[in-house]
Write a structure and sequence with these properties.
The structure is a single chain. This protein is of the alpha+beta class. It has two domains: about 100 residues, GIY-YIG endonuclease (3-Layer(aba) Sandwich); about 120 residues, no CATH class. Helices cover about 25% and strands about 25% of the residues. It is built from seven helices and eight strands. Strands 7-6-5-4-8 form a five-stranded mixed sheet. Strands 2-1-3 form a three-stranded antiparallel sheet. Strand 5 and strand 6 form a beta hairpin. About 30% of the residues are buried.
């Protein structure tokens, strides 16, 4: 099996995006970007990961993974964007990639209304007792509803004023991504969740997506003037 490019090819290839295919079922199981001989590096990787496990299973069947380049001869920035788009399209949960593409959070797969909120935002005028919560940079516009909900409601070091909050706003990059009606607050880690914590001094809420009247008022609206400092959350109308 070929495990490196001829030296005279490498400069011409520049950055590229590659995929690993399982020859037993023709399923794409890994997407990556790199330059030089990066696409071959996984064949000798011995770290514990789903990707390495899949490669070893293929080799045990006396086969080798198929490696293909989707695009080459591009800059690193373009390669990052293509990698993110391909991972979003194929769904990272069906791949052995541990994370979404590095450029996915801001230029990855998203709906038209979310896209408009980035380039042509409308200012929000929030009137209800609210808590604006900034989502970390691990956010992606292709997150599922449950992933966004858990990332918003957990795990906060927050005072007694939390009990006055009617609505919690998930905010990323200064824009409202979702609005939740807060039902009750609980000690961190005590409600069913996709995430865990060992921090006993934190809180989390149980809630539900707000009704359409509230959502239509605030969803994808700009709150950057309120959330432009380092604080992870902000009270309004409390």
């Amino acid at each position: 099996m070929i495990n490196k490019f001829p030296q005279n090819m490498i400069d011409s290839l520049q950055y590229y995006v590659y995929i690993y295919i399982d020859p037993r079922n023709e399923e794409v199981f890994y997407v990556g970007k790199g330059k030089g001989n990066r696409c071959f590096a996984h064949l000798s990787d011995n770290k514990e990961s789903e990707k390495v496990k899949r490669i070893n299973e293929i080799k045990l069947d006396h086969k080798e993974p198929t490696i293909e380049l989707l695009i080459h001869g591009v800059t690193e920035d373009i390669a990052l964007k293509v990698e993110a788009s391909v991972i979003d399209l194929l769904n990272v949960k069906k791949l052995t990639n541990q994370v979404k593409g590095h450029a996915s959070s801001k230029i990855g797969r998203m709906s038209i209304d979310k896209l408009i909120s980035i380039y042509n935002p409308e200012k929000a005028n929030i009137l209800e007792p609210a808590l604006l919560i900034k989502i970390k940079n691990t956010f992606s516009y292709s997150h599922t509803a449950n992933e966004l909900y858990d990332a918003t409601r957990q795990f906060w070091r927050i005072g007694a004023d939390r009990e006055k909050v009617e609505y919690a706003f998930a905010v990323f990059d200064g824009t409202v991504q979702e609005v939740y009606k807060v039902i009750s607050w609980h000690k961190a880690g005590t409600t069913f969740s996709s995430r865990t914590t060992t921090k006993e001094d934190r809180w989390e809420f149980i809630g539900q997506i707000a009704n359409e009247e509230i959502r239509s008022k605030y969803l994808y609206k700009d709150v950057s003037a309120i959330t432009n400092n380092q604080s992870p959350f902000y009270y309004l109308n409390i």
